[in-house]
Amino acid sequence: MTSRSQIAPVTDPTHHSPQMLVRLPSGSSRARNLLTGALAVRCANRWPRRMAMLATAFGLLWQGAALAEGYVEREDVRAYLDSVASRYGFDRDWLTSVIADASHQESIIAAISRPAERALAWHEYRNIFITERRIAGGVQFWNGNQAALDAAAARYNVPPHIVVAIIGVETNYGGNTGSYRVLDALTTLGFDYPRRAEFFRGQLTEFLLLVREEGMDAGALKGSYAGAMGLGQFIPSSYRTFAVDFDDDGIRDIWNNRTDAIGSVANYFAEHRWKGAPVIAFKVDSPPANASELVDSDLKPTRTAGDLRALGIAVPAEVSDDEPASLHRFEAADGVQYWVGLGDFYVITRYNHSRMYALAVFELAEAIRERRESTGAGT
Ligand SMILES: [Ca+2]
């Protein structure tokens, strides 16, 4: 467990952005590279090879200058770099060289401007995650990483099916950890997306600190359009605060090392006060007539299971009266469903601040566990 960072947990709705919602169109950087290549080909047709190479080199130099002008020549960026250099003792030339390598990506602005979670009804959102492929993939991931999952459950008290479902929802078990350069994502959003600029500049600062602390190559790190990295899609502040070197090899690698990724997700939940209570959430089979008026608007529970019992909602007997509880409403394919989320359901929303996200993780986790038990692997 890391104690290196004093940074407070992030409270931001795009903390983790499920990867499946992201399309990956070719960015402006790719377009520029193609342009440079086309220039070189045209030159080769008319000039000797050496001249063509010179032209290519010139094109690359020109491209570098244009990119540099894009960010490090900007006054707001320079003010930011001066500020973080003095605050965190960064080498100013190193900062300049890192940001000079950052490329504006219009596709990142486009992606963050249309978060699908806000547009989809629950049954549409659910259909993305609760699929045969993702359930089978979860069983496979579990069986392939059982020792790490068991170790994480022992150390952090977070059960394997929840950790597996998080990694399944976030990246399809590592199948899609994101193909944007994190440096491009955070610089683009930090300086060219005014609505969330402050948040993403903060994450850019965290990223620079992370890269310095871990001795990483800033330009080589890949992630989502929002700068989330690895199997569990940690943004830089989460990486610094919650990622763990769970296999004790001296490196926190949440991209390629499944043991580290599993330990890091479990640690994230433990640090957000996962309790391991017997019930996470349940569907209300016979909601009271006034259920729609009882729905909680905030994710953080303001009531208890005892309160909901007093309001006429049947709560399973193993849930104690003092357990935090919220009533949620979801648009299912066949009409409205009411669900009660208990304390650990709220903890899932600390991973991604969305009740649909939390229910998808819960349902996927249950489906994976049931499938694994039914096939005899879980006994
Ligand atoms: Ca490690």
Q: Could you characterize the architecture of this molecule?
A:
With 379 residues, the chain is of the alpha+beta class. The chain has 2 domains: 1-27 and 72-272 and 352-379, Helicase, Ruva Protein, domain 3 (Orthogonal Bundle), CATH 1.10.8.350; 281-349, no CATH class. It has helices at 28-46, 49-71, 75-88, 92-100, 106-112, 122-129, 132-144, 146-156, 160-171, 182-192, 197-214, 236-242, 258-271, 291-294, 305-310, 343-349, 355-374; strands at residues 180-181, 222-223, 281-283, 303-304, 324-332, 335-342. The strands form 2 sheets. A 4-stranded antiparallel β-sheet has the order 3-6-5-4. A two-stranded antiparallel ribbon has the order 1-2. Helix 8 (146-156) runs parallel beside helix 13 (258-271). The longest helix is centred in the first third of the chain and has 23 residues, at 49-71. It is globular, with a radius of gyration of 24 Å. Mean pLDDT is 85; it is low at 1-49 and 59-68. It binds calcium ion. Calcium ion is lined by residues 245, 247, 249, 251, 253, 257, 260.
CATH architecture of the largest domain: Orthogonal Bundle
Nearest-angstrom radius of gyration? 24 Å
Total helices: the number is 17
Strand tally, please? 6
Kindly estimate the percentage of residues that lie in beta strands according to DSSP.
Answer: 5-15%
Strand order of the largest sheet: 3-6-5-4
